[in-house]
Write a structure and sequence with these properties.
Layout: E1 4-9, H1 10-22, H2 33-36, H3 39-64, E2 68-73, H4 80-84, H5 97-112, E3 116-119, H6 125-138, E4 142-146, E5 160-164, E6 169-170, H7 173-180, H8 187-194, H9 209-219, H10 222-227, H11 233-253, H12 275-278
Parallel strand pairs: 1-2, 1-4, 2-3, 4-5
Antiparallel strand pairs: 5-6
């Protein structure tokens, strides 16, 4: 029996659900709830979030018909990308303190549904998810990543799919082509050219989305663009100026796929009537 491993980008899911539950209590969306809301209100928001997360997990597991599932959380401390580039994700809104204190309750609720949590120590949750997704897909098994994070789109292939729970849609190659006008395997090169404003990763000054996609459709890859002899002088100058930063940019954008995970797939297997049929596929990582 083919496995279907569902990997949940936990904070991507939980923080969005929390924001929806918190919004009715805020007079101004720009308010910081940790400062303005009463403790009793914060507790109500957290309780509502717990229930909504539980319902979301039920829907995810039911829709995907997962055989294995795991909720992956970011480390409590800054990951290696911040050491490489201190301005990484600079200015991003921090997790509400009250939510941070309540994550254990949500993890416990997930565990009641047989979905364990994996918390990163030095890598981002994205790297752990990417590592597990690629390893499972290479064995010919199905993987669905539950996230709205566009960074996972570079992993799309026949074994890996990405599901946006909030918009109820799969983010596939058609989505990539429509949004970026390149293929999924070109996305890292695309973001190296344009930068990634969401994570405050710089691109090449003066190169926007239209120019980046046009260049990649013509030359196929950034390496070919850099080696091209027929570029306009103004573009050549931009590339020369930015060349020193490209290596760091690529490291920031590229998800790790080789992290030692140290657990067996049977540890995240969901109870099923056909459990004996999938045991043979449960191997260590």
């Amino acid at each position: 029996m083919t496995m279907h491993v569902v990997l949940i980008d936990a904070l991507n899911l939980i923080r969005r659900i929390y924001a929806v539950q918190e919004r009715p209590f805020l007079l101004n969306e720009k308010e910081m709830a940790d400062e303005y809301l009463a403790d009793s209100t914060k507790q109500q928001v957290l309780s509502n979030t717990l229930q909504a997360c539980s319902l979301a997990l039920n829907k995810i597991l039911s829709q995907t018909q997962a055989t294995h599932a795991l909720a992956v959380f970011d480390s409590h401390t800054p990951c290696w990308r911040y050491q490489l580039y201190p301005d990484y994700k600079k200015g991003r809104k921090k997790m509400p303190k009250y939510l941070a204190k309540g994550l254990t309750e949500i993890q416990d609720e997930f565990m009641l549904k047989n979905v364990d949590s994996l918390i990163s120590t030095q890598d981002e949750a994205d790297d752990l998810i990417a590592t597990l997704a690629v390893k499972v897909a290479k064995r010919g098994q199905r993987v669905t990543i539950i996230s709205t994070d566009k960074g996972f789109l570079s992993l799309l292939n026949q074994g890996i799919t990405i599901y946006d729970y909030f918009n109820r849609r799969y983010l596939n190659e058609d989505h990539v082509k429509e949004k970026f006008n390149v293929n999924s395997e070109q996305l890292i090169d695309y973001w190296m050219l344009t930068g990634d404003s969401t994570n405050k990763i710089p691109g090449i000054s003066g190169i926007g989305q239209v120019t980046a996609s046009s260049l990649l459709n013509q030359y196929q890859s950034l390496a070919t663009i850099l080696a091209a002899k027929d570029l306009k002088e103004s573009l050549k100058e931009k590339l020369i100026v930015a060349k020193a930063q490209l290596d760091i940019t690529k490291q920031l954008l590229t998800l790790k796929t080789d992290i030692p995970l140290g657990f067996n797939l049977k540890d995240i297997r969901l109870p099923t009537e056909n459990e004996h049929l999938i045991k043979t596929n449960d191997k260590s990582f």
